[in-house]
């Protein structure tokens, strides 16, 4: 299980729960299927898949958990169509128009009729806790998904003392500076081939560069004219390629083949999972502090 998009949070105090204690806590909000009249449910499931009962995977001191969510799929167009059909039937039978409040009541009735037959879409969000280095890392492309897991974990445990890391320089400011002058890049980091820039005035729009040499003068000219970098493709020590976002999230992560080869755990699936997790958490434990140090040192 290699994370591809991460939001990371810092524990304000050491995380001291054991894997067994965390498992027992997660059992109180274990994942279950949507009921007939429920639009969604969420709870904790095994990171190892449906064949496993353990809700916490442990490798060394590090822990992995997984939030499973189920959502009923009810297209808005279908609901509107059903409401309109019933409203027209009432108008034809009663000889009067259907008012706004009655339409709202019709919509509630239609939802009740459709929910038991609706398709169910499931999704999973993985996270790992690194007690020794003090990080909670969520594998999610959107801040909403990450915050959803954080809030559910907080409700499950009763408290969760994590915060977003603070930096001396905003990611946007640092990325803008790095793109304008790649010699200001911190040691071990290099530019890759993509970025996104936003003008100071929203009316000027957004410029996206992909699969180009972003160190070219033509690209840097936009920065010199006032554009700010919101996303920047970087490489760290030829071990990790990624896109840094202005909210400090790290996305489109690709670990180098040398890192992946180190995680060769043999033919057994459980052993491979353990090897992947061990190597990935080791890399992230080293990478995150280096990235934060780069944002705390304004040259």
Structural account:
The protein has eight helices and twelve strands. It is an alpha+beta fold. The strands form two sheets. Strands 1, 2, 3, 4, 5, 6 and 7 form a seven-stranded antiparallel beta sheet that branches. It is globular. The two termini are 37 Å apart. The model has no long low-confidence stretch (mean pLDDT 90).
Topology:
Blueprint: E1 6-11, H1 19-26, E2 40-45, E3 57-59, E4 62-73, H2 76-94, H3 100-114, E5 119-130, E6 135-139, H4 143-157, E7 162-163, H5 171-180, E8 189-198, E9 206-210, H6 217-224, E10 228-236, E11 240-245, E12 250-255, H7 257-262, H8 269-295
Antiparallel strand pairs: 1-6, 1-7, 2-4, 3-4, 4-5, 5-6, 8-9, 8-10, 10-11, 11-12
Helix pairs in contact: 2-3
């Amino acid at each position: 299980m290699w994370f591809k998009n991460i939001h990371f949070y810092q524990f304000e105090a050491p995380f001291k729960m054991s894997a067994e204690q965390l498992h027992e806590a997660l059992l109180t909000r274990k994942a279950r299927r949507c009921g007939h009249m429920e639009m969604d449910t969420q709870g904790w499931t095994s990171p190892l898949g449906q064949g496993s009962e353990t809700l916490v995977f442990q490798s060394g001191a590090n822990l992995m958990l997984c939030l499973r969510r189920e959502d009923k799929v009810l297209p808005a167009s279908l609901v509107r169509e059903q409401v309109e059909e019933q409203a027209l039937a009432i108008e034809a039978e009663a000889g009067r128009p259907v008012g706004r409040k009655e339409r709202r009541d019709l919509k509630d009735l239609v939802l009740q009729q459709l929910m038991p037959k609706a398709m169910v879409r499931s999704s999973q969000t993985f996270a790992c806790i690194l007690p020794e280095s003090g990080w909670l890392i969520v594998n999610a492309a959107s801040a909403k998904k990450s915050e959803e897991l954080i809030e559910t974990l907080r409700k499950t445990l009763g408290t969760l003392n994590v915060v977003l890391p603070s930096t001396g320089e905003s990611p946007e400011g640092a990325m803008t500076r790095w793109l304008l002058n790649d010699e200001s890049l911190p040691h071990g980091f290099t530019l890759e081939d993509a970025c996104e820039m936003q003008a100071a005035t929203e009316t000027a729009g957004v410029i996206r560069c992909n699969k180009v040499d972003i160190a070219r003068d033509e690209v840097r000219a936009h920065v010199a004219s006032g554009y700010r970098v919101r996303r920047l493709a970087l490489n760290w020590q030829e071990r990790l390629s990624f896109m840094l976002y202005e909210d400090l999230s790290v996305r489109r992560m690709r670990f180098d083949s040398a890192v992946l080869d180190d995680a060769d755990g043999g033919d057994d699936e459980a052993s491979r999972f353990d090897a992947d997790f061990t190597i990935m958490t080791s890399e992230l434990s080293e990478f995150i502090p280096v990235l934060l140090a780069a944002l705390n040192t304004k040259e």
